[in-house]
Every structure is written in structure tokens, then in C-alpha cells.
Amino acid sequence: IEGAVPALRALRAQALVTQVRAGINQDLQPLDEAETEAGALIELAPDAVIMVNAYHDLFLVEENRGQLNRDVLASLKPGGVYGIIDHAAAVGAGSSAVQSLHRIEKKTVVDEVTAAGFKLGGESNILANAADDHTAKIFDLDGKTDKFVLRFEKP
Fold first, then answer.
1. Block means of pLDDT (10 residues each) for the chain, length 155 residues?
2. Chain centroid, CA 9 distance in Å
3. For helices 4-21 and 65-75, what crossing angle results, to 10°?
């Protein structure tokens, strides 16, 4: 059962990739091909894309994260928000803890998403947990991991 959770998370991450690439709007309805004029796309474009506890999973599947982030950027309305919440890894860990602990360093996410053209608009410590020393698997902490909350904005 322990191995099933990462597999399900990876499938969820792949589903998000598919939805973004397919141009699915906030109501998860496919865009009609006849409505692909620029104005119609902006009108149907989502105000926000939110990814919760899944960005680290993109490292576990064969996914071009740079392209995914650029696709999210292109799919959003001007001024749109890309919110990412994930389990924090230790400072300096980068993506090295993804496979073993299912954690990612906040700086890695910020670097990748801003490289795609987003601006970091803010962050919150509302889900921070100072008692989490970033050494345990997220599944061992019963949902009490230290998490970062990032708000990226489409310029």
C-alpha cells in the first residue's frame, strides 16, 4: 500500500499536465476548437491554477517541468495566479529528497517557475511546521509536514 500512494500522486500530476496541455478551463471543460480566437481564449482562460502537494511528483514522471510551467503561463488570463503548495525539503536539498521523502526545496520550485516567465507575487507560512525537521517521509507525519505556499503571477 505504501507504494500505491506515490503512484497515485504521479497519476494525479500526469492528469494535471494533460489538463493544462489540453487547454481545459477552470470548469474542466475542453475548449471548443471554434473558440480559439485570442479574445475567446482570454475569456475562457482560468484566473488561477493551483497545484497542491504535487509539484514534487513531477520529478517522478517523465515530464518537462519547464514546458509544463510555460503551458500554465500561457493558459492563464493576464494577471492570473499559479499557486503551488508542497512539502518542504531542507534548505540546499533541491530535488534530491523527492524520491526518498517526497519533498522538494522551495527554492527549486521558485527557480523553475520564474524561469518559465512567472513573477513570484508572494508566499505564506500559514502551512509551515517548525516541528518538522525535513528528514522524515511525508507519509510518516500524518499530514503534519512543513509546507510552503507560493503565489506566482502572470505578468
1. 43 54 45 42 69 93 90 89 96 96 98 98 96 96 94 96
2. 12
3. 50
